[in-house]
């Protein structure tokens, strides 16, 4: 590609993301108190969902421990902030810790596959939950941690819901951009090769072990960031926020949106967080609907990489949707 | 032995058991530089197993594999690939949800540079150019942006071959490249293979069932039966070997 | 006291063993990992409740009808609609689907009732003092009934024609096919048998734990652990694994806090997965790298 073409392409991307940033930052201005709260939740969960999408959708590994990593990030934030450490240090700290532990959890992922891996991650989630619940001295036990203040930079305080929502939006956008970038490098291609045909990938020289470990670490770190943002959003955290069923929720989000698709988490999170607001039915009914959608998506496009929406699109127009042939 | 006749790959007493089934029962074989070797034998004689053991896809139960006098027995397939030994598969093995170009570039992206360096690049111009060149050579350049799963079987076989060529291998092992392919395409593939050996000076080993073609194009033939080598040598000699006839026709 | 615990452990373990055996059967015959096994038990319990409580049918009739319904839905329909379609595209999709199905079932039963339903029990739950120990008739019944089902299952598999065909499919699908066995029908049979097994597991477990819509999660996980520890490519492994989990559960609750019984089991599971993934009594799977 010529230099000017490359420049134009980069400029195009910058403008695109700039526009998205502007929209994200402006929207909260017009939302009511409750809606801002939903908006913030959505963005926080979006980050964690992107992490799981990387692990499950791109590298084909099952992790049912995203909630636990969210918990790690959240508790790091909660513990550090209540001891006076700055938000801006606690957030990367939580992410780093999640990255490290995710890397460790990645090792079993190398040895076992699929259902065994699912069990290991379930086990990990459960053990973390028990730790959160029982290690009173550090985590506040059953009741959790309170009074988690929101960040500030010097004199500028992001105390209000509106201001903090913008902080979340900025971090979320940053994380998504990073994900986009990673997936468009050779790493992204390597992940895909592993997902598509692991044996062939190994034969052409892909270091399966290294990539799988990285994927687990990054995906978990994303959950850690989400957790770190969650803590000041709620102002408090407690163990039940990070129990096993939340990990299942993330799985549903990724499945609904179409695993392995870049827009997948966006769709999945939007459905799972927003639909309940419109339907106003019980939690269980919501979960019922989500799981049905997830099963339908899986049955219709079992290979992943496409979503229900592409299938519908194809049925209606007879053509493949544009993003599918990328 | 003159230089061209040195074995580039040497199999010594190779054994492979599957729960008591002796798939390979002590096979000795040599693959000499720049030759076109045909590996034949009835179904189940162990040809693919031999290939799999040589390339690290299967572990061996006994025996050794040497590459230019280096012992590569038990090496991982990725390491063997990096030595310049590439292979295709009986059942085409591509990356179905990726484009043909991606498949091609993917075939060599891990061969150079560091893990960390790969975070900062998607592909170099030369990789894409080379991929396109090879696709041209194989006459399938027009499908370069299609998803691999959407190609016809014949096209997929060619892409498989193309991926192998990307790495500029010194040794190419082809597992039934003509299986399921119509005669016209088959002739094309054979032409490409012959060009590989004569022009690009690769060493090629083919597993194929089509005896006529094999006897026609190969420099040497090795015949396996029930996990053992029963014949080797020039095609004319092998053609008349009574053991070979017995194995194939049970006479 | 120890004896009591052993009885209790056997009773609990028997239920897990049943579920694990069904689980193992599905894996062996059709490479299906049924994450929804626990929810199947819950569903069976609820269906039983519908027949017995709401429709006031006699116990045995209700049981028979329940079996018919579970075989139909959890066996045949589940197989045809979900499993058959997804098995071709890989285990990952299938596992995700069964997880989603488990969530689906778990959250649909709430529409019948959100409360814990008291489940009919054939015998009294009161413990009878026998010599120096207090024996719960329910425990004894559990063990007896579970043993009966297991023996019946083994007899079926070993002595009957379809049973032997099933065994063949479980051991080696391809060879079985070559021998002329209708693998598809055998797989359906396996799912049907699993449905029967979970129904029996339901009538054994529900009286003790009460039937609640979310009881499946804990149960299912336990059965899963049992299958992993014992080795689920051998029915024998699933059986022993189930009993083992039962004993561990009962003993840790008695001697340590109940909080950590789950953790102990989990650590065992993770240990097994890392060091002996085929399970203590299982055999090594050939994760075929052949192409």
What is this structure, in a nutshell?
Chain A is an all-alpha fold and 326 residues long. Chain A has helices spanning 3-26, 33-58, 66-82, 87-111, 114-134, 136-139, 161-183, 186-196, 198-203, 208-234, 244-257, 264-279, 283-300, 308-317; strands at 152-153, 156-157. The model of chain B has no long low-confidence stretch (mean pLDDT 82).
Task: Provide a descriptive summary of the structure in words.
The complex is a heterotrimer of chains A (326), B (251) and C (291). By secondary structure, chain A is an all-alpha fold. Chain A has helices spanning 3-26, 33-58, 66-82, 87-111, 114-134, 136-139, 161-183, 186-196, 198-203, 208-234, 244-257, 264-279, 283-300, 308-317; strands spanning 152-153, 156-157. In chain A, a hairpin with a 2-residue loop joins β1 and β2. Mean pLDDT of chain A is 83; it is low at 322-326. Chain B has 251 residues and is an alpha/beta fold. In chain B, strands 6-7-8-3-9-10 form a six-stranded mixed β-sheet, sandwiched between helices. Chain B has a four-stranded antiparallel β-sheet with strand order 2-1-4-5, covered by helices on one side. In chain B, α3 (100-109) crosses α4, α3 (100-109) packs parallel to α5 and α4 (125-137) packs across α5. The radius of gyration of chain B is 18 Å and the shape is globular. Helix content of chain C is 74%, strand content 2%. In chain C, a hairpin with a 2-residue loop joins β1 and β2. The model of chain C is unreliable at 287-291 (pLDDT under 50). Chains in contact: A-B, A-C, B-C. Chains A and C meet through α5, α11 and α13 of A and α3, α4, α9 and α11 of C.
